[in-house]
Design a protein that fits this description.
The structure is a single chain. With about 400 residues, the chain is an all-alpha fold. It has one domain. The chain has 16 helices and no strands. The chain is globular, with a radius of gyration of 22 Å. The relative contact order is 0.10. The mean pLDDT is about 95.
Length: about 400
């Protein structure tokens, strides 16, 4: 397929600019479509552009002016996500037997490779969620399996791929210090910094780091709405009015807007996860906790897009073999996440609602979208309830220890 039309068109524009003028030039204000995300994806896109130019389009004209042979370029731009999907499956095949036995390895691989949400997002949508999903998984695996330095390198790569990986930064820092001590945390941070400097080298060399920072340092300004089509708490609570400004003041208080409420709710979830992982370093708990944390970000923060849930699956994959409830959650979210993307995919909604179809909301398809949001909120509430119950004994232990001292 052509993929999600607007985003793929932008990816092709980035590829054209990186191929003709260098990666360092893509954030230039004069460029037709400067990115609003971090730059790591520009490297495989540049490689795709060189292959496209060598095999199909020696002149490689601007893709928004000349669509000759664009099908090949669209395919090449899917390869980073498809390769990352395979690497996530390979990581699961390696890691799952360490904790759950060999029987679960192939089950986990199949559960990921045939997850309809993962397939839809990478192969059909043409999006790149699998790339930062891979790095986020490797970051948590490094923390969990005794390789914090490599985990921090992976986290740096994830953050340089998509800002969503930033969510893990505070928890990774606290748990690395807790489990490995300040010396190893310092070495891990230095390794991550060195990795980041390598990725950013073209921008530093050509003096365009400021142009990049001007674009990536204000993500909240690009979609200042309750929900950028994510079927989360805000889509559910607003009855599908996701385009409402997240800077509105629901209680009439000048300093309290939807954005701050969402961040506050997410902060509570963060504290819950921190307490659980501070007290319990078991691998299953760590993988589940990071998966739950990212789901909380998807559900409670504003401005979230419909495909932002994808990284949760790779993390949940390593926790679900030991918990039937998590297996049900994985399967259910695979369905609802696919529906979330499909119900906002332009090529699909034009078929389902030939008149009045609107990617961002509106009356067409309002009921199925809201019902899917209700389902996802319900699944999150079920998971959160179980997570709180599992954490409650740790709370009692903490408070009782405090009273004795």
């Amino acid at each position: 397929t052509t993929g999600y039309w607007g985003d793929i068109e932008i990816y092709m524009a980035w590829t054209w600019q990186a191929t003709h003028s260098g990666i360092h030039s893509v954030y230039a204000p004069s460029f037709v479509a400067p990115p609003n995300t971090t730059p790591l994806l520009l490297y495989p896109f540049r490689l795709a552009g060189e292959v496209f130019r060598a095999l199909w389009s020696p002149s490689f004209p601007p893709p928004w002016l000349d669509r000759t042979n664009q099908g090949y370029l669209r395919f090449l731009l899917r390869l980073p996500a498809l390769a990352s999907t395979g690497l996530i499956a390979a990581a699961a095949y390696k890691l799952v037997p360490k904790h759950w036995g060999k029987r679960w390895a192939l089950i986990a691989v199949a559960a990921y490779l045939f997850n309809p949400a993962v397939v839809f997002e990478s192969a059909y949508y043409g999006q790149t969620g699998a790339v930062h999903s891979l790095f986020m998984l490797l970051a948590v695996a490094g923390l969990t399996e005794g390789y914090p330095g490599w985990g921090w390198v992976a986290l740096a790569l994830g953050m340089l791929t998509k800002p969503q990986a930033d969510v893990f930064l505070p928890l990774m820092a606290i748990l690395t210090w807790r489990r490995y001590g300040p010396a190893r945390l310092t070495r891990a941070l230095l390794a991550a910094l060195a990795c980041a400097l390598v990725v950013l080298a073209p921008f530093i060399t050509y003096g365009t780091l400021g142009e990049m920072w001007a674009r990536v340092s204000r993500p909240e300004s690009y979609h200042p709405m309750l929900s950028a089509t994510a079927h989360n708490f805000w889509w559910f609570a607003s009855l599908g009015q996701g385009r409402l400004s997240d800077l509105a003041h629901p209680l009439g208080l000048p300093l309290l807007n939807y954005r701050l409420i969402g961040l506050g709710l997410f902060g509570l979830a963060y504290l819950l996860v921190l307490l659980r992982t501070w007290k319990d370093s078991a691998a299953a708990v760590t993988y589940e906790s990071f998966a739950f944390l990212f789901l909380s970000f998807f559900m409670l923060a504003t401005q979230i897009h419909e495909n932002h849930l994808i990284p949760m699956f790779s993390l949940l994959l390593l926790a679900m073999p030991g918990d039937r409830r998590l297996r049900w959650l994985y399967a259910a979210f695979a369905v609802t996440a696919t529906l979330n993307m499909a119900l906002h995919y332009p090529q699909i909604i034009r078929v389902l609602a030939p008149t009045g179809a609107d990617v961002w909301g509106g009356p067409a398809l309002a009921l199925p979208r809201w019902l899917n949001a209700a389902a996802q909120v319900g699944l999150y509430a079920w998971w959160a309830t179980g997570y709180v119950r599992s954490t409650y004994p740790l709370l009692l232990t903490t408070f009782s220890s405090g009273r004795r001292t």
